[in-house]
Design a protein that fits this description.
CATH architecture: Orthogonal Bundle
Distance between the termini: 41 Å
Oligomer: single chain
Shape: globular
Helix content: 55-70%
Number of domains: 1
Radius of gyration: 15 Å
Largest sheet: none
CATH class: Mainly Alpha
CATH topology: YutG-like
Structural class: mainly alpha
């Protein structure tokens, strides 16, 4: 039998993919965040750091919780006024960002800066996730941005340790 952490990691990855987000999509975001700081940065290195982030239980829990809330919203199963708030991804709601910050917090304060930057610009897959015609991704867009920010932070910390 697999260890629980392996099961949770696989389930989180599976649910991300079912919602249209691949590890490569997240690697593109990490690359976007770090390309100006590392001349030898590769997508493979970005993926390596994403994989480490995905092994953290806090990250797995955030992914699974956020995706389930988005799915419940798509099915109209949240009570009002929460249903409308999540559907509209209201700016003052903030709970989606709080879940994302639990991921960012795993690798220190540099993650907050990375997360804020990528959340504002919404490059790559984040732009697709923010298209209201593509389903409810109120939580997922922030979670994906947070995974990229955490992986970028992990990368920055590992580079610091090698110098």
């Amino acid at each position: 039998m697999k260890k629980n952490s392996d099961f949770y990691t696989e389930k989180a990855r599976e649910w991300l993919l079912e919602r249209g987000v691949s590890i490569e999509d997240i690697a593109d975001l990490v690359y976007f965040l770090q390309k100006n700081y590392y001349s030898n940065l590769t997508k493979e290195l970005c993926i390596e750091h994403i994989e480490k982030v995905l092994k953290k239980r806090e990250v797995q829990n955030a992914i699974m919780t956020g995706i389930q809330l988005d799915l419940l919203c798509e099915q109209g199963k949240l009570e009002e006024p929460l249903q409308g708030i999540v559907e509209r991804d209201e700016g003052l709601y903030g709970v989606d960002e709080i879940i994302a910050l639990s991921i960012v917090n795993v690798y220190g304060s540099i993650g907050f800066t990375n997360y804020g930057y990528i959340d504002k610009l919404k490059p790559g897959v984040l732009q697709k996730l923010n298209d209201k015609n593509q389903g409810c991704h109120t939580f997922l867009d922030d979670i994906v941005g947070a995974i990229a920010a955490a992986a970028s932070s992990r990368l920055a910390h590992s580079a610091e340790n090698t110098e």
